[in-house]
Design goal:
Layout lengths: L6 H21 L6 E3 L10 E2 L5 H5 L26 E14 L5 E15 L2 E12 L2 E11 L2 E26 L3 E11 L1 E10 L1 H4 L6 E10 L1 E12 L2 E10 L2 E5 L8 E3 L4 E11 L2 E11 L1 H6 L8 E11 L3 E2 L2 E2 L2 E14 L2 E19 L2 E17 L2 E16 L1
Antiparallel strand pairs: 1-6, 2-5, 3-4, 3-23, 4-5, 5-7, 6-7, 7-8, 7-9, 8-11, 9-10, 10-13, 11-12, 12-15, 13-14, 15-16, 16-17, 17-20, 18-19, 20-21, 21-22, 22-23
Length: 400
């Protein structure tokens, strides 16, 4: 820590100032300016990140019920159809902008997975995003120091995110039914910094800012289970649930910071796909979680009781490019965000689209595949309105 005030002021005034200003800034509806993926990441535990691949995003999916062999941590039974070893990496670039503000951009790898089949079983590794906690909020005010008014700028910055690392097992049963489970832990580190800078025109040059902060490391057990049913070649239905022990945020560098323990709700997902015509299929899904207990654990902010998400889309596989299958996808998704902003419930609505392309084939088995998904829409919470866009690219490779 570095200081520019007398030691007695630092010992008694600044800790209270830090807590008061941080709470005041986070409680405002539209601070200025706000940087990061989304202003809503400053509320509650952050902005939930859906760990979807590009195909799921293009179809407006909630992550379960898609046809074919794919690897998604939210759909533990999906990997049972992977007859050969597979690895998939998703790259995601997103932007968010207040209606009257400049856009900010963010990149991440929300879903990384690999599978290995053995003796009728499929074993998998998943690394998924869960909560984005990156934002920066600034505010300005006048302080009374030494009998005169001094301009001051406060800045609260949070960098980092929380993810889930899991091991999975799945198996097909009688060719029409598949089951799967996952078990893992929270991973990730969040760094939070607060700084106070006095106006050099009021106090002169050479005055160093006051800074303090901490690093918080995430831990806690997570698990999931799912099943899929294929009653015929035209229909697939899947269901999954995600369970979490308490999310623990432990200080790793600053012992003055308190450990945070937050209850994460059980989440249910249901989805399905039906082939209507040759090459034409329709997909739909929904998810539900009750965040009431997590809201009781938070010192500031509220949560909605029922957080529903639902969406769907269509896929047309009757097109080709350079002699290879080139399916086109369109959809939409509505998502209720669990954490309120300034007392207002937050939600997100996006329109989606994308395509897929086999890069390398071995007979009828794709060994390298490229998927692209795009979303565009809005997040709203009371007076806050953000225009959001997202581009996801998934590369999937397989080896016999």
């Amino acid at each position: 820590m570095r200081g520019f005030l007398p030691s007695r002021l630092r010992a008694h005034v600044l800790p209270a100032l830090f807590a008061g200003v941080a709470g005041l800034v986070l409680a405002q509806g539209v601070p200025s300016p706000a940087l990061g993926q989304s202003l809503l990441a400053a509320d509650g535990l952050g902005l939930p990140v859906e760990p979807l691949d590009a195909r799921a995003r293009a179809l407006g999916s909630v992550g379960v019920g898609l046809t074919g062999a794919h690897l998604l941590g939210r759909d533990p039974a999906a990997g049972a159809l992977a007859a050969i070893s597979t690895a998939a990496v998703t790259f995601q670039s997103s932007s968010a902008a207040l209606t009257d503000g400049a856009a900010t951009r963010h990149t991440r790898f929300p879903a990384i997975s690999a599978s290995y089949p053995y003796a009728g079983n499929v074993f998998a590794v998943y690394l998924d995003s869960f909560l984005d906690q990156e934002f920066e909020i600034r505010s300005e005010e006048m302080l009374l120091l030494g009998g005169r008014s001094v301009g001051a700028q406060h800045r609260f910055t949070s960098t980092g995110s929380i993810g889930r690392a899991s091991l999975g097992w799945s198996r097909a049963v009688r060719e029409v039914f598949a089951i799967g489970v996952t078990v893992g832990t929270y991973v990730g580190v969040t760094e939070r910094r607060f700084s106070l800078l006095l106006d050099t025109e009021d106090v002169g040059i050479g005055v160093e800012p006051f800074e303090t902060g901490s690093r918080l490391r995430a831990s806690g057990l997570v698990a999931g289970a799912g099943a899929s049913w294929n009653p015929g070649p035209l229909v697939r239905v899947s269901g999954a649930l995600s369970w979490s022990d308490a999310l623990v945020l432990s200080p790793s560098t600053d012992e003055r910071s308190e450990e945070g323990v937050y209850r994460i709700p059980l989440e249910f997902r249901l989805g399905g796909t039906a082939n209507l015509l040759t090459g034409l299929s329709v997909h739909a899904g929904l998810s539900y979680a009750d965040w009431t207990d997590a809201g009781a654990d938070l010192r500031a902010g509220e949560t909605r009781e029922a957080a529903w998400s639902y969406g769907g889309g269509i896929e047309w596989a009757g097109t080709s490019l350079f002699g290879r299958a080139f399916p086109l996808r369109f959809g939409a998704r509505q998502r209720a965000l669990p954490f309120k902003s300034a007392g207002a419930e937050a939600s997100e609505f996006v329109l989606t689209g994308g395509f897929g392309l086999n890069l390398v084939d071995a007979g009828d088995q794709p060994l390298a595949r490229l998927e692209l998904g795009y979303e565009r829409g809005q997040r709203t919470a009371g007076p806050i309105q953000e225009d959001v866009s997202l581009l996801a690219v998934t590369v999937r490779v397989a080896s016999g």
